[in-house]
Write a structure and sequence with these properties.
It contains eight helices and eight strands. The protein has a four-stranded mixed β-sheet, sandwiched between helices. Strands 1-2 form a two-stranded parallel ribbon. With 227 residues, the protein is α/β, with parallel strands linked by helices.
Length: 227
């Protein structure tokens, strides 16, 4: 179940709380549900990424100045002071977006190996992603990895709009990994986009809401990937 934000919504009338969902009867106090017809997609994970990367396209968000995205198992803080400060910083940043650096070391390939080892995707899917990346003439093993559990962007950021649209055109084919960090790493590097580095703790994890066996989706018999 999502965090109850009804009180937050009342106390912060300039903030709105949107949730993209396929459930018409979702119990989400304080949230404004948005449903999209994504029947052309087969993976539920892919469908969940639509709101993550393309929320800026929805008419309900056009009057928003800054969008803060967070995965559903994170909790929003009660005070709005920090969000207002970060929103202003994001709007004034050349990229118009802010992200947390990924703690992973060893480059994008090591991160993909880790994804398979931790059973967050299959070796088959990850090998397809690796093959696609190696076909790109400007692919760099040293592209900067960011975490995507939370980020912020100006609704008018051309950098985010171009990046997310480019990302979606490949990701939505569902012909490779369902993890979004490796492809997002390449996309930002390809488009020469450098987000503002977020360092402030904007959201608090609520592990009891994580589900999906701690985000492990594959069997224990996953094969190693080809690098």
């Amino acid at each position: 179940m999502l965090q109850d934000v009804a009180t937050l919504a009342r106390n912060n009338p300039s903030f709105r709380y949107f949730v993209f969902t396929n459930l018409k009867d979702l119990n989400a106090p304080g949230w404004i549900p948005i449903t999209k017809n994504l029947d052309g997609l087969t993976r539920m994970i892919t469908k969940s990424r639509y709101g993550k990367f393309l929320a800026w396209k929805d008419a309900l968000l056009t009057n928003c100045e800054v969008v803060f995205y967070l995965d559903g198992w994170y909790t929003i803080h009660k005070s709005s002071v920090t969000y207002r400060r970060i929103a202003n910083e994001v709007k004034s940043h050349p990229s118009g977006m802010g992200q947390y650096l990924h703690p992973s070391e060893g480059g994008i390939t090591r991160e993909m190996e880790k994804i398979v080892r931790l059973r967050k995707d299959t070796a088959e899917n990850m090998n397809k992603t690796i093959a696609w990346l190696k076909q790109q003439p400007d692919f760099s093993e040293n592209c900067t990895l960011y975490t995507n559990y939370a980020f912020a962007y100006s609704i008018e950021s051309s950098s985010f709009q171009k990046s997310s649209q480019f990302f979606w055109e490949t990701y939505s084919t569902e012909d490779a990994s369902w993890r979004d960090q490796p492809l997002w790493c390449y996309v930002l590097d390809h488009l020469n986009v450098t987000p503002m580095k977020l360092t402030t703790n904007l959201f608090q994890p609520a592990f009891e809401r994580m589900g999906h066996a701690g985000h492990k989706y594959t069997s224990r018999n996953s094969k190693p990937i080809n690098v």
